[in-house]
Write a structure and sequence with these properties.
Helix content: 40-55%
Strand order of the largest sheet: 3-4-5-6
Structural class: alpha+beta
Number of helices: 6
Distance between the termini: 45 Å
Order of helices and strands: HHHEEEEHEEHH
Radius of gyration: 16 Å
Largest sheet: 4 strands, mixed
Strand content: 15-25%
Length: about 170
């Protein structure tokens, strides 16, 4: 069952909740994260906390930190902190949604792992969340197809890889 979602990736879902300007820039191949200290720290945290687990890149869109097969398919995302909890949750919900609808994988369960605080949060994809994801995907497509949104300065901006681009 294809819902025409295949051009949106998990990072775009995440950025939709964090910053529309960052979403637009990233979506237009202005990607500054690879050399940013916070991104490197997040990758290091994943590599050191879950050494035995391997990333899964699916269709060059979905990059799951690790998968466990039990009586269900568990997909896990490793996050540095719970500060961007809503963005993290919807990124994971999108991965679950994608696997169920694009790959026809049933019984998918999601977990957000926060190794620094030794917490793990189970995420459930409901019909209501699916409806929200359809709306979010349409909103993302509209943002991408429009001109760049004007940056709005927030507390989190100073730690963003795009800070100088937006506010210099």
């Amino acid at each position: 069952m294809n819902f025409m979602i295949s051009k949106i990736n998990g990072t775009q879902i995440n950025y939709y909740f964090i910053c529309k300007t960052k979403l637009w820039l990233f979506s237009h191949n202005i990607q500054l994260e690879d050399e940013h200290e916070n991104v490197k720290l997040g990758k290091f945290l994943h590599e050191t906390s879950f050494k035995r687990e391997k990333d899964f890149l699916i269709d060059n869109l979905i990059n799951v930190d690790f998968i466990k097969i039990t009586d269900s398919v568990e997909i896990h995302e490793v996050k540095k902190s719970q500060k961007m909890n809503l963005a993290n949750e919807y990124q994971l919900l999108y991965y679950m949604f994608y696997l169920e609808h694009e790959k026809d994988i049933k019984n998918v369960v999601g977990f957000l792992n926060y190794p620094n605080s030794r917490k793990k949060k189970k995420i459930t994809l409901t019909k209501e969340k699916e409806r929200e994801l359809f709306e979010i995907i349409e909103n993302i497509k509209n943002i991408i197809d429009s001109s760049m949104p004007k940056p709005k300065k927030k507390r989190i901006c100073s730690k963003c890889a795009y800070f100088e681009f937006c506010f210099s």
